[in-house]
TrEMBL record, chain A:
It is a multi-pass membrane protein. NCBIfam families: cytochr_II_ccsB. Residues 74-196, 269-394 form the Cytochrome c assembly protein domain. This is Cytochrome c-type biogenesis protein CcsB. The chain crosses the membrane at residues 12-30, 42-68, 80-99, 106-126, 138-164, 176-199, 262-280, 303-327, 342-359, 371-393. It comes from Oceanobacillus limi. GO terms for biological process: cytochrome complex assembly. GO terms for cellular component: plasma membrane. Keywords: Cytochrome c-type biogenesis, Membrane, Transmembrane, Transmembrane helix.
Automatic annotation (TrEMBL), chain B:
This is Cytochrome c biogenesis protein. GO terms for cellular component: membrane. Signal peptide: none annotated. The keyword Transmembrane helix applies. It is a multi-pass membrane protein.
Amino acid sequence: MGSLLSLSSTMLYSAFILYLVATFFFGFTIREKHSSSNKRSIAANIGIIVTIVGFVAQVVYFITRWVASGHAPVSNLFEFMTFFGMTIVLAFIIIYFIYRVSVLGLFALPTALIIIAYASMFPTEIAPLVPSLKSHWLYIHVTTVSLGQGILAISFVTGVIYLIKKIDQSVPSKRTTWLEVVLYSLILFVGFVIVTTIFNLMDYQATFEYTERNKAVETEYHLPAIAAPNGGQLVSENVMEPLFEAPAWMHGADAGRKFNTLLWSFISGTILYGLLRLFLRKRIGAALQPILNNSKLDLLDEITYRSVAIGFPVFTLGGLIFAAIWAQEAWGRFWGWDPKEVWALITWFFYAAFLHLRLSRGWHGEKSAWLAVGGFAIIMFNLIAVNLILAGLHSYA
Amino acid sequence: MKNIKCDCGHVNPEGTVLCESCGKPIAGNQHIDGNDQKKLLNMRYDGTARRSQTYNKTIIDKIWSFFSSVKVGVWLIVIALIASAVGTIFPQQQYIPADAISRDPAVYYPETYGIFGRVYYQLGFHNLFSSWWYLILIALIGVSLVICSLDRFVPLYRALKRQKAKRHYSFLSRQRLFSETVEVTATEKEEVIKKLKAQRYKITEENGHVLAEKGRFSRWGPYVNHIGLIIILLAALLRTTPVFYTNEYVWVSEGEQTVIPGTKSEYYIENEAFILDIYDENDERFKDAIQKQGVVPSNFQTNAIVYKAKEGALVGSDSELVKVAEDEIRMNHPLEVDGYKLYQSGYQLNEVNQMTFTIHEKDNLEGEDLGEFSIDLNDPKSEYELENGFTVSLADYFPDYYLDNTGEPKTETQYPRNPTFIFNLFPPNMEEYETSFVGDIKGAAEAIGIDTESVELSPMSKVIGKFATSLDPTGENDYQIVIKDIDFQRVSGISIRKDHSLPFFGVGALIFMIGVIQGMYWQHRRIWIQPTENGVLLAAHTNKNWFAIKKDIEKAIENTNVKMVNDQQELDE
Ligand code: HEM
């Protein structure tokens, strides 16, 4: 049992490294003359093979963890997000074999890497399933939604590539700013991963005590407290004193700690972004633009649309139809306006609007690309914010 | 109707942009699809005459045009999207947590979320999804769906049925994919057609004019999926009627048998046992997680028997009941009987069944008691006369006691989950009485660190009774009433659903899925090959996935002189 679990985490770790290696190989393709055409380059071939090996490693992680825990590992934030990373890789592999665009790997794999790294910052113990999750529909529903979202994520990736290539970087504009915002948000995740890892290695701990509805509650910080819980008292010794208290309207389970984590992500992400800017001496978008010299805008646009066209039905099936069937089985009501459900509906509305705008109002190219980015923002919001902030029936973490 | 006759002889309905037969742009109508501004033709609906674009005189025309506009449709969708997002900022009323300050929304939102909460409540966002304006919004989307689908489907169907292989030059040259080859031999042309056939194109030929077509059925995908959506909306309408949908809830304690609400007293449920299992904290797999999270339940279950009253029997007479179902009702495993479904929806581990009290002299609590009485919480009396002459009357009773924030004792529910009493005690032969305040066993248990939501109090009933509140509000009492024993019962919460609208939702969802897949995973591709003096014109159109149609053409013209089509796309940004 223990050995199965350690095999499982080794496999996840290997998958992570392999995706990283594959990213470099896709990176080598950008110097080749013909990288975005059908002719295959050696670097791209190695890249896709390494990606597939990584994917297989992650499948082994998934299966061994399933065997070890007795249920499909999609039941908490860590498991669910790593799985999402895996479906992004799968979607990338599929789309790669349709279009053979190797620059896609250079952006899709880092997206998956960030998500898997982010997931690993959350508790990774195997948690027992509460009765409402004990159903075959758990994995039917979650895996289908996740696959749909993974395919939709590819449209985000091509959308971002499109924008980096398309937007005129010679003068600052609203578009260059927004593109920087998108890239900066990705860097925030990296910032979060870095700080969390550092303080985890240091085994940092600070305990606060505060009262919630006349009961004394303790909360444990694993990052130095910039913001203490509202009305909280630091009980640990020899740790950093908080600079201020979280505002009073932030209550509920561990709101102070989550707020503190958010602050840390912003601070570290901003520093990281600042360092990058200093080092590159230009906007990140501008720095990335030259590597896309060989990419074709119309093909990128086509892939954006195609991945929405493929992902939308899969998402509908998993996120709305299977979800409803399960809710009917578990609670006797197929739809309950729970925040998670509502955000699935919002995602669905959003992509429906995307499709209509494109088909009937001719929103191609850059407009489509911005919409694809927006759709992914909604998906990530549903995965993270709805779980951590708008707690409802589905809140895992 | 002012029909328009094309040069090719075909008679088109008023408002046609491209001749249904040969595709020649009809002069004077090009502004309708914006073709006058562009080199390429707008092929969205093959230039057919759509009602919404043709008539705009009467009020009906205007409403029709309004709702058939995709712009309007998208706006409706976007508004619904934003409204839904706002609806998740704070919990909806039904999700106000049980341990909130107050479950009264007028109190809860301002108290918990300050000024934003107050505004949220006052604007009605706490019940957004059943508010009239949200429902109207969804209904408008439905209306828009019906109208815009009809507006487009009918003419498109007509045009695709009437299209001829032979096309006008200006139609071909203004397609996105087009090429002109001056010199092509007849065998080469045959070769191309053969290869198109091999790729499963359907070939129509008319005097050497060729149309190769594939996947036309996918054009109907959107209309099919819209029909699915309309069925779902209609099902939602049906569901608001009691004929199609009932939703009830019943609490039934262990060993008890009670009528199932919403069944016109036809069905009864008996709770044989309620079972709550938790995960073993020593389980190697889950040890770490349980240590962090605390007790994790693994199963809630009611062993239930359902009876049906015999036809014509008197309501409530046990002998006339027939057993119709027996099952373990668990989460994710409802019991089904005659179109009803029974779901395990809640439980109370520590509801009180009966409480026994003793009366003591206040300064001699350890000594012999002066009398004893028991209250059946399912049926409390207003007065209890004891054998030795004491009388106890219930001045006030709070079945589910809590102290609100003004310090008033209140009851949360009508169920005896935390029974608390104000007794008036009349000693033998006395007119004067003493008042005492007794109860709040939940408070007593929590004070000694027991989580009453997940731990059964039954084994500790004596201890808890001893610690429970017994107050003398005046400070002048001679006697004290003490809890001697508490008999707890476990109560199972079962919700009862009858939902005949489900098949309609199912059919709607299925049709929707068929429609989206049909429209998304296939594409409608057309390739025209038209003879010129010695060569051919080659043009192609697809409704999506241009990458694939180009590949099809590449394959078809391989090893021939026919020139590859140029992509004349005008990316308009
Ligand atoms: C949330 C509700 C809706 C969903 C999920 C939905 C779904 C779809 C889908 C998947 C397509 C195919 C798109 C493509 O092939 O790229 C489509 C097409 C279309 N939809 Fe909707 N739709 C919705 C509401 C509406 C509304 C309210 C209107 C009315 C204005 C509308 C009008 C259209 C039109 C005109 C088309 C194009 C049909 C064609 O080109 O043949 N839809 N819809």
